[in-house]
Amino acid sequence: MEGNIEPELTDHYYGIAGLQLALRFPSTLNLDNVLPSFVGFREEQRNRTSAAVVTFRGEEVPAEEEWGTLRSDISLVWGDNFRFYEQEDAFVTLIKHKIKDKQWMMKSTKDFSASDIYGKADDPRMGEFVSWLLMVVFGQVGLLHRLILIHASVIAYRQKHGVAFLGKSGTGKSTHSKLWLQHIPDTELLNDDNPAVRLEEDGRVWIYGTPWSGKTPCYKNKRVELKGFVRLEQAPLNRFTWKKGMESLVAVLPSCTALRWNKDLFNAMTDTLAQLVEQVSVGYLECLPDADAAKTSHRAFFED
Amino acid sequence: MMKLRHDLVLRKVGDDYIMVDPSQGMVDLSKVHTLNETAAWLWEQLTGKEVNVEHVAALLCERYDVSPEQAAADAEALVQEFEKAGLLEA
Known about the structure:
The complex is a heterodimer of chains A (304) and B (90).
Chain A: E1 9-16, E2 19-26, H1 31-34, E3 52-57, E4 69-72, E5 82-86, E6 91-95, E7 104-108, E8 114-118, H2 126-143, E9 147-149, E10 153-157, E11 161-166, H3 173-183, E12 187-191, E13 196-199, E14 205-208, E15 223-234, E16 239-243, H4 245-252, H5 263-279, E17 281-287, H6 291-302
Chain B: E1 3-4, E2 10-13, E3 16-21, E4 31-35, H1 37-46, H2 53-63, H3 68-84, E5 88-89
Helix pairs in contact in B: 2-3
């Protein structure tokens, strides 16, 4: 048994939406094979501090008694894959599995700047699980850097402007992006599920591709200036309406991720969001899955 | 003694005064409360202080040209409204 020997770890650095994420994983592991969607985000350490450090502990998941108080287990963005627990000085994220041996667990400081992942390196789903856990880390740590990971499909228009489509699962976010690709010239898919929106010091708002993109393998390490958000709803017609003030915030809020029971993170998110919706346009589109729907939202942002 | 909930932050978005309430349940479902200008002003005045009808009525009288009876009635309605919306805590 080598149970007491600490495996040698290698540091890997990734730049996502301008934030550095450091992963400390066993040197024997080929991380590019484990996390293929992250390859395009690799960067040199440079002389800056990582916003979050995530260390892989190839150890048993600690016993249930050590997880803490159960907070919530359902998220619109993450589905029901996770359970969150809170301890006095830590958050625990659990990926459920009916076989105890196959559970994955992550313990994070309350600001998510440091996390330890517990799981088995020979689990065939390791890459998927680690990617999910990193999304939890990034989504929370980003909030303290005026960055929000949102649930959206986003297109880049003329390599310059981003428009993010929001909506409940099954509303047709990806479909609407596809319709833009087919019918609006000079359109590119930036991300199909989890782009990051960041409010810069100068008040400009950028939307970034990330290593998370749902079922569509679209992991682009690039950004465009965000023109606005459109909340989609299926309807028997195409009709676009602008939203202002409170209504614009309400349109975007359900697509943002924050562990609500942490007051600091939640307030950081709401602060950023309140400023975001003043900087960019927010619309509501009742739509059909047809070419005219894409033309309607295109017209609203770029012609009227 | 009732106070305003300390975890709610009043924000102005466009022309609206709002508070996002991280209510329990779903991780990313929240309630949004909207306040009119008077309620928003009162919220600021009442932060950290005791919320009762007398206090609110006194504030209304200071700021608006209303009779004490009218202020008391408005204050009563407002405190009830805050309570009903779950904006107060002990």
